[in-house]
Amino acid sequence: MAGLVQLDEVLAAAKRIAGIATRTPLLPCPWADPDRPLWIKAESLQPIGAFKIRGAVNALATLDAQAREAGVIAVSSGNHAQAVAYAAARLGVDALIVIPHGSAENKVAATQALGATVVRVPAAEREEAARMLAAETGRTLIHPFDDPLVIAGQGTIGVEIAEQARELGICVDTILAPVSGGGLVSGIAVAARELMPQASVFGVEPELAADAQESLRRGERIAWSVDDTWRTIADALRSSSVGELTWLHIRELVAGVVTVSEPAILDAVRTLASSARLVAEPGGAVAVAAYLSRRDELAAGRNYVAVLSGGNIARDAYSRILSGGEYVG
Questions:
Q1: Residue tagged active-site, from 103, 200, 241, 309
Q2: pTM for the complete prediction?
Q3: Cβ atoms 310, 49 nearer than 8 A
Q4: Residue 41: active-site member
Q5: Residue 158: closest CA among 251, 254, 261, 64
Q6: Left (φ > 0), alpha (ψ -120 to 50) or beta: where does 139 sit?
Q7: Is 309 a catalytic residue?
Q8: What span, in angstroms and rounded, lies between the C-alpha atoms of 236 and 326?
Q9: Is 126 helix (H, G, I), strand (E, B) or coil?
């Protein structure tokens, strides 16, 4: 379909990222409902602790010599920032990262530790600031989601799920993936359309940042204010809207978007720690939260894959969640 990323682009991305991004495991969940088998795609085990490395590496790997010399710029609250910083360091490219005030400090520190220069700006000004700096410096802007190369990179998760399902002898019927800007769910949906046509791909987002669900309900791309989306504990999922390109993919390829409450997100973080022995940040746990708390909205008796998209959480915040306390990002 015109305008959409195609499977051959995703397969090309898989070759580019090999050796830098990890082929993460698809883990069975014997603790889950036996009538609703669940597997977890553990992207928290990537070198930078989140799936974002896939799209970042794919985008940077396609830069020509002149663009590499000029460097790159990205805007992110944390995981894309770390991904671009890591990819840039591996590929010998200078990276400048625009990070909004109020972002998780552990993610900011990790980005700086990877060698990137960080510029802090108000959250509402982050996109404009990144575009202005790109124009002033001649750097290439690596968008966190609304870029076909980034979408193709994230789509390699879908390729791996299809391969691993065949290896395990299972038929995947439902894939649950977090939604913020929409790059992850878009890429997975591209791969699933060709490699797992029987599978329905659902996006998952917090109730407090449900712009994607509202967009689907109204049939047009809707933006929420920064004040609204920044209420959620899922700091990785605070984009005000899906992108123009990702919206095309979501509208055409995604079966639906379900939302999860803040308590459900925290319960999923605890369940992943105690039952799956996996560290998840709140935004990374929303797919499992949907599996656990939105049963009525998802078909019963099917094989589920939940994408655990990230595990970058500060130790003190993680400790509070596990002890039943409140989360402070």
A1: 309
A2: 0.95
A3: yes
A4: no
A5: 254
A6: beta
A7: yes
A8: 17
A9: helix
